[in-house]
Specification:
288 residues; alpha/beta; 10 helices
């Protein structure tokens, strides 16, 4: 049993994806539906998935929850809240009364797209995320290197909240730059209430010419700092299609973790996601 802890679904006839700016994104400027996901994972060992929000629009999360309710492959949803808003939790209240609400396992905001690099350490953000933790939700950190310091400060300020770092905080893999990413990720890993998704890497590399060796230094640091028990696999499909097929992303992760023991491998491919996103993943849709 392997879990893809991070993928998306979107239908451009329902709404545009406002982050799709520039011709470089044309290959993914199309609909990606649940049927496309099933086709993509066919022939891999991926059996269950976590569906993650893509837009800062409160209409999207109810749709994702309804999809999870209807589709047995999806075992969790990471929904959206504008987490610095005073009324953020009122939207969470609405989510909790929707069909499919039991699939809501976490919340995310698009922190790396906001102009303030300290967005995640704003007092209102911390207050709202502390409340998320009290309600049993995780919070997914979406940062690039410039926002990573703020993310560390947030994790320190909310020790009772389970955090999940998305996309290894998007280091500059194409340029081969390690610092200051490595030092900050090691610091982040000293905090016990955060785990990290090994996801979204291929789109941070050279899209048309990446090699396994490009990623090895970054993953080695993560394995040392977090250990496999605090790392989880994710594809970031269909965004990843800019640089790799679904199968290629899976194969890349297999190559980078080939030295793990069977127990460590199970943590990376399944166990960390189940623990981080809560007991519901282990109870619904026979994920265990």
């Amino acid at each position: 049993m392997k879990i893809d802890s991070h993928h998306h679904i979107w239908d451009l006839s329902v709404r545009e994806q406002g982050w799709m700016v520039g011709d470089a994104l044309n290959p993914i400027r199309q609909n990606f539906l649940i049927s496309d996901l099933r086709a993509a994972i066919a022939g891999t060992d991926i059996k269950k998935t976590v569906l993650v929000q893509t837009v800062t629009n409160y209409d999207e999360t109810p749709e994702l929850l309804a999809l999870a309710e209807a589709e047995d492959v999806i075992v969790g949803v990471v929904g959206f809240l504008k987490i610095d808003a005073e009324d953020a939790l009122s939207h969470l209240d609405k989510y909790e009364n929707l069909p499919g609400a039991k699939y809501l396992v976490g919340i995310r905001d698009i922190a790396h797209d906001y102009p303030d690099p300290n967005y995640l350490s704003k007092p209102t953000v911390i207050k709202n995320i502390v409340e998320l933790g009290k309600r049993g939700y995780t919070y997914d950190l979406l940062t690039k290197v410039p926002q990573l310091r703020s993310g560390i400060d947030l994790v320190k300020s909310a020790p009772n909240v389970q955090f999940v770092m998305d996309h290894i905080s998007k280091p500059f893999i194409a340029e081969g730059v390690i610092e200051p990413w490595a030092s900050m990720m090691r610091e982040l890993a000293t905090l016990p209430n955060v785990v990290c998704k090994v996801s979204g890497m291929v789109t941070e590399a050279k899209w048309d010419s990446w090699k396994i060796e490009d990623f090895a230094p970054y993953v080695e640091i993560l394995l040392e700092a977090f250990t496999p028990s605090r790392l989880m696999f994710g594809t970031d499909w269909p965004v990843a299609l800019l640089a790799a097929s679904y199968r290629e992303v899976v194969t890349l992760a297999q190559a980078l973790t080939s030295n793990l023991s069977p127990t460590e491998s199970d943590q990376f491919w399944r166990g960390t996601a189940v623990r981080a996103y809560g007991h519901t993943l282990n109870e619904i849709k026979e994920i265990s």
